[in-house]
Amino acid sequence: MTNESFAAELWSGITDIYAAILEHPFVTGLADGSLPRESFEFYVIQDALYLRKYAQALAAVGSRAPAPAETEMFSRHAAGIVAVEMGLHESLLADLDIDPGVVAAAQEAPTTLAYTSYLLAAAGGSYGEGVGAVLPCYWIYWEVGKHLLENGSPDPRYQRWIDTYAAEEFGDEAREVIAVTDRLGEEISPAERMRMHRHFGATSRYEWMFWDMGYRREAWPV
């Protein structure tokens, strides 16, 4: 990726956020096995709730794509979330002895609701805005997965999570959306670039907040 890449420009704007993510005790705890089981359980349930809305956001973004190939791509990714990532969660729920009914009855934590609401709102805007909003979940998870894979985890459940997001298949999807982002960067107006920067930065912050929510097992205050 060259310095002229719009995606690289977006990433350069969140380097401090990404560094904070790598330093968060949830992420470091995945690597060294110190992450409390209760925090991981809470995260897995909330992530299952999140992924349902994220798939909806991807489908909405795809519906605004100017090219049929990009509509197909986002639709395929949305379906893949159900098939692959939800499959991961189902296996983790079994390993954690969590009844799937618990997920069905679970309430979105404040951060989960705020993040998914932001995604769906952005997906209702222009195509570029939607792409800018959904890209961090692809890209940050892929980068974190690769980072953690370097040393692995002593906990097999955490290692399964790491393997999923460090996998080439997940990386291929991230690269597809990065390529779309770079193409948009050559076409959109300066005002649209600013909006994409704003959404990319906001949802990158939500990524940090989501891991922090899981670590703290965030609850509604009232």
Total number of helical segments? 11
The average pLDDT is 93
CATH superfamily: Heme oxygenase-like
Give the tally of structural domains: 1
Q: Ranges with pLDDT <50 over ≥5 residues?
A: none
Which of globular, elongated, flat, extended, rod-shaped describes the shape?
A: globular
Beta-strand proportion: under 5%
- Structural class per helix/strand content? mainly alpha
DSSP E strands, number: 0
Question: What fold name stands as the CATH topology?
Answer: Heme Oxygenase, Chain A
For the CA atoms, what is the radius of gyration?
17 Å
Can you identify the CATH class? Mainly Alpha
The H/E string reads HHHHHHHHHHH
Q: How far apart lie the N and C ends?
A: 47 Å
Helix content estimate: over 70%
Tell me which CATH architecture applies here: Up-down Bundle
Give an overview in words.
With 222 residues, this protein is an all-alpha fold. The protein has one domain: Heme Oxygenase, Chain A (Up-down Bundle). It has helices spanning 6-12, 15-23, 25-32, 37-63, 68-95, 100-105, 110-123, 127-149, 156-166, 168-185, 190-216. The longest helix is centred in the middle third of the chain and has 28 residues, at 68-95. The radius of gyration is 17 Å and the shape is globular.
